Amino acid sequence: MDLNNIPKIKYTDSGNFFLLAGPCAIEGEEMAMRIAETLVEITNRLKIPYVFKGSFKKANRSRVDSFTGIGDEKALKILRKVSETFDVPTVTDIHTEQDAPMAAEYVDVLQIPAFLVRQTDLVVAAAETGKTVNLKKGQFMSPESMKHAVQKVQDSNNQNVMVTDRGTMFGYQDLVVDFRGIPTMKQFATTVLDVTHSLQQPNQAAGVTGGRPDMIETIASAGIATGADGIFIETHFDPANAKSDGANMLHLNYFEGLMQRLVAIRKAINP
Questions:
Q1: Given pLDDT bands bounded at 50, 70 and 90, which one contains residue 242?
Q2: pTM of the predicted model, to two decimals?
Q3: Where is the DAHP synthetase I/KDSA domain (predicted)?
Q4: Residue-range domain boundaries for the chain
């Protein structure tokens, strides 16, 4: 996939990895704009190609009383405002075929959640919008099997497709990253490592997903070292009070330092 096919993306000739980052969910305009402003400043300084990430709704919740969103159109309009204000592309998850054309009116990249990536009608609906499609690797799938998901997009006359590893189930309450999957998937698609979701600890008794944010730098560094084209990280200025996935998010205060170190690793392996 040619990154330059994503509108507004910058620094594609810098030699850096590209970045998908932002909050798990759009909780409101002020928080989204605050996070976006910080991330845009950092990525501009370091010349990292950047896509702002925010889910306009969360359909994959553990409990019925979990936060799902502030309203579809309201959240999508905030994503559009982020893009227009900071001149950056945006990505959001979709969960149904009807979501695809609706979200495509507001964002530049449509993301298929890991647990839905085998849903052919959903993948095809995303592809048929003409937007870049980011396919999350199912926690239950091998890297090799993602080739078939990629082929569904390409067979829908859309060559703008990437795959994202977000860990593989290891027992009932943990995930592991098999870094062999990165060079494997790079054989057939641009490959991203989702660092923060790979550190989730799902299926907790309380119905709230746990996480290991202390391992973010370890996983991210290994991802760059093993050749990931891009990195996906969720971040928030107050993870403890985030309305979704706070347990595995990176505090915004630590973002620039991490990016500086990852850029250094990238330059060391790809001078």
A1: confident
A2: 0.93
A3: 15-261
A4: 3-269
- 90-135 residue pLDDT tens: 999 999 999 999 999 999 999 999 999 999 999 999 999 999 999 9
Architecture of the domain made up of 3-269: Alpha-Beta Barrel (3.20)
249 burial (CB, 10 Å; 0-12 / 13-18 / 19+) is buried
